[in-house]
Automatic annotation (TrEMBL):
It catalyses: 2-phosphoglycolate + H2O = glycolate + phosphate. GO terms for molecular function: phosphoglycolate phosphatase activity. It comes from Edaphobacter acidisoli. This is phosphoglycolate phosphatase. InterPro entries: HAD-like_hydrolase_sf, HAD-like_sf, HAD_2, HAD_sf, PGP-like_dom2.
């Protein structure tokens, strides 16, 4: 898919796209399982559960993704423990992927007025805290999380809200056709499709295998590919 218009808005996923948060998320899940006397899981298994928000991450770790094995009060208690633990340990090992800062600076230099935002299924406060701490916040006019709206990705509500806000910010009507969602999983690709936007998949992220069954419009092998890929949407 391509567009005759230059990009009007870039929307980035966080985990597996801008940052490698795998170890802190895996450690937090296993600390939670241990606290509730459940067996720990391999990091690779936990990583495959990431992408659909905290509730689904915890439910999958409990072996109950459909919610039919545990009562909601228990699940809520487990989620609360996980969130409290993760808030305290979210920056133990998390780092910005090599090339991300340079690429964001290159995009900003080439497109100085192009609005950029974060849309993640991670809760919004940890997302904003991480971006502030790691020097990412300066690039983005907005950062929304999985609890910012009544729905999460791949529902298009979040990205459509960002399109409206970016339009108000720039003083012109930005369309979905001018919008690009950049992320590492099928969730991000589907979010773009559901909004009528374009997508760039990140093969270096936490869930690149999911991009095989739900392919993006373009694939980045590294964050350093992003600036050049933006130009491909002009043709």
């Amino acid at each position: 898919m391509s567009s005759a218009l230059p990009p009007g808005l870039l929307v980035f996923d966080l985990d597996g796209t801008l940052i490698d948060s795998r170890q802190d998320l895996c450690n937090s899940v296993n600390a939670t399982l241990q606290h509730f006397h459940k067996p720990k899981l391999p990091d690779a298994v936990i990583a495959s559960y990431i992408g659909d928000g905290v509730s689904m991450l915890v439910r999958r770790a409990l072996g109950d993704p459909e919610g039919d094995q545990h009562d909601e009060e228990y699940v809520t208690e487990v989620i609360t423990y996980f969130l409290d633990y993760y808030r305290a340990h979210k920056l133990d090992f998390t780092y910005v992927y090599p090339g991300v800062i340079d690429s964001l600076e290159a995009i900003r230099a080439t497109h100085p007025t192009l609005p950029m935002a974060v849309l993640t299924n991670k809760p919004v406060n940890p997302s904003r805290d991480i971006c502030n701490h790691l020097g990412l916040a300066r690039f983005f006019f907005q950062n929304y999380g999985g609890n910012s709206f009544h729905t999460k990705k791949p529902d298009p509500h979040g990205i459509l809200t960002l399109i409206a806000e970016a339009s108000a910010l720039t003083g012109r009507a930005i369309t979905p056709a001018e919008t690009i969602m950049i992320g590492d999983s099928h969730v991000d690709v589907l979010t773009a499709r559901n909004a009528g936007a374009h997508s760039i998949g990140c093969a270096f992220g936490l869930a690149p295998q999911s991009l095989i069954t739900v392919p993006p419009d373009h694939l980045a092998q590294s964050p350093t590919d992003w600036p050049a890929l933006l130009d491909s949407f002009r043709t």
